[in-house]
Amino acid sequence: MTTGLDNLPEPAELHARLSERRPLDWGDPIPSKAEIAAAYGSGAAVQSLTLLARAAQVERALTDDLVASIWDDASPHQLESRLKSPQSLARKIRKMADTEFNTQPIEDVVRYTIVMPDPDDLVPGAVGAHDSLAGRGWKISGAVHSYADGSRYKGLHLFLQHLGERVEVQLHSNESIAVKTATTPMYVVERDPSQPRGRRTEARNAAIALSAQMRQPAGIDGLDSLGGVPVEVRVYGRGGRQPAGRGRGTGPSPTEQPPASQSIDNNRKSGMAR
């Protein structure tokens, strides 16, 4: 066994423990820790499984809190994707290595999505979810929305901490989650360096065009802060992440969905994080 992995659980064992109360999608078959180490390096595999083993100790309490914070007309979306898979997390860790993001904490090991019925429910639903979680001891560290002209992806993300874990909560309406689902194949093409440049540009422009048809949620343009932290506005699709409106703020970066070309993770469905 690769040095450093011996005292860490096999992904299948960790998955079985985490699935006792609620289903969890880590793909089928779930790769072994040796396979993850072979694909992404032993360091990334060790860090991935260490983070997930730690999160597993409090995941049930976090998920119970999250579900209890959702108002009556809203619902959790793809709760089976609430923890990043070990192979996806290892891939992200390797991708971040030797970049400016290498020393930053990973915000989406644990992640949730809440879906509201209508776009105009988004802001009050986000405020209500935050206030409910804050009442349970959660602390918000950042917030980002991308309801800006020219953005290929539009959503509202909160970054919180509780029980020693960093948690990303995405908030969507039925409309925005449908557009996100429709644009995911376009996003995969856009992010795939093996695709011709023209095809990647076409995919990005098609996603921007679909997102442009979405209704602007009531109150989103005036959402300057939430829970005492600035709400950052970002534009996705203009050659990368760009701040818009009020500038960068202090929140962490929303997660990006990786291209579907990674060999041991391509049997897992798209999941929640963008």
TrEMBL record:
Composition bias type Gly residues, residue spans: 237-250
SUPFAM superfamilies for this protein: Nucleotidyltransferase
Region feature (Disordered): 234-274
InterPro entries on file: NT_sf
Stretches with biased composition (Polar residues): 252-265
Protein name per UniProt: Uncharacterized protein
Organism: Kribbella sp. HUAS MG21
